[in-house]
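Hello Y.,

Per our agreement to keep a running log of every chain we model this quarter, I'm adding this entry. I've kept the format consistent with earlier entries: sequence first, then predicted structure.
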Amino acid sequence: MLRLFVGIGFPPELKLQLSLLCSGIPNARWVDPGNLHLTLRFIGEISEDRAADIDLALTQLRARRFSLSLAGTGVFGGDRPHNLWVGVERSSGLLALHDKIEKALVRTGLPPEPRKFAPHVTLARLNRAPIDKIAEFLAAHAGFRAGPLPVAAFSLIASFPTKAGSVYEDQADYPLRD
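Predicted structure for the entry above:
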């Protein structure tokens, strides 16, 4: 079984820029800088045969290159925040790619993603982190901006759990066209 997702990787300089944000909140489990990415679609645990079908579907996908920009910070979880993120500005290219990936994966037999696409880059998972420290972080980094980042490809990525956290490994890369 493989635990897979579809995502966009970042260049080292952007990973460094994002990693410099990762401090100041007790009980936060910060994402390893090497794992910072934009998830386009979480797939989950599947067999290697299903993974081959997914790879074929993604290989046949045609989408154009685009640029994306990161802006601002936020949390998921409302009064009980559990995920700290950097926002991704919506763009027609990003939304078109996401929609094409979703349709391709549904055609392979995966169930449709029930959640609305909320593009973000996870910085940390929060477990009983002090609300005041989260608020300070959000206020301090509300003006964060990075990009535009040219996006020329997306990837099928496997997640392997370890005691030190997940290790991500690209399984296949899919170029976008000019």
